[in-house]
Amino acid sequence: MIILFTIVHVIVCLFLVIVVLLQSGKAADLAGAFGGMGSQTAFGPRGAATVLSKATTISAALFMITSLTLSVLYTRAGGGSVGSSVLEKAPITQSAPAPKQAAPAPQTPIKVDLQTQDGKTVSTQEIPLPNAPKSAPAQTPAAPKK
User: Fold this and answer.
1) Which of 44, 89, 138, 145 has its CA 20 to 30 A from that of 6?
2) What's the pLDDT at 6?
3) pTM score of the predicted model
4) Cβ contact 76:36 at 8 Å
5) pLDDT one-digit tens code per residue, 87-117
6) Backbone phi and psi for residue 51, each to the nearest 5 degrees, phi listed first
7) How confident is the model at residue 12, as a pLDDT?
């Protein structure tokens, strides 16, 4: 039954496209090209309904009916219930595990050289960083003053 309605739906779609493209516009006559009365009004005078306009109306109605029928048939055939969606029916896949973070590099104390204005090194001190292993600060003897 679904296949039959799908075939009818495709035929109606193609027919509707062809019929709409074959119709001429409302102001397609010679007067419309030069600003005639039909081109300036939205609800201007209409001519009698032609065969193409009747075919458009009938094919548009058939298109809507087949669209609604196909949606109902596909919902019933798929076992869908109210509130179900494509995302709920999708298979669940596991994501890749998060990459392991590298171990932090061991933190060593910062060595600071204390210098005079002449540029001579007076002493060197180690400043320990937080969470670093504590060690005895290394100090060098002060240079003799001159």
Assistant:
1) 89
2) 94
3) 0.45
4) no
5) 777 777 777 676 777 666 666 777 777 777 7
6) -65, -40
7) 96
Query: For residue 124, what are the β-bridge partners?
Result: 113
| 9: its two tokens | 């739906």
Q: Are 3 and 70 in contact, with CB atoms under 8 Å apart?
A: no
Q: What is the rounded distance in angstroms from the CA atom of residue 112 to the CA atom of residue 127?
A: 7
Report the distance separating Cα 75 and Cα 70, nearest Å.
8
Task: Decide: 131 and 106 in contact? Cβ < 8 Å.
Answer: no
What phi and psi values does residue 124 have, to the nearest 5 degrees? -120, 130
Residues 12, 120: Cα–Cα separation, whole Å:
96
Determine the distance from the C-alpha atom of residue 146 to the mean position of all C-alpha atoms in its chain, rounded to a whole number: 75
Count CA atoms within 13 Å of residue 91 on its CB side.
2
From residue 126, alpha-carbon distances to 116, 120, 129 in Å are: 18, 18, 9
Q: Which residue has the tokens 């100090």?
A: 139
- Counting as low any pLDDT under 50, the low residues of the chain are 39-40
Neighbours of 90 (CB within 10 A): 8
| Amino acid (1-letter code) at residue 142 | A
- Rounded CA gap, 89 and 75, in Å? 13
Element holding 115 (H helix, E strand): strand 110-115
* Residue 53 identity (one-letter amino acid): S
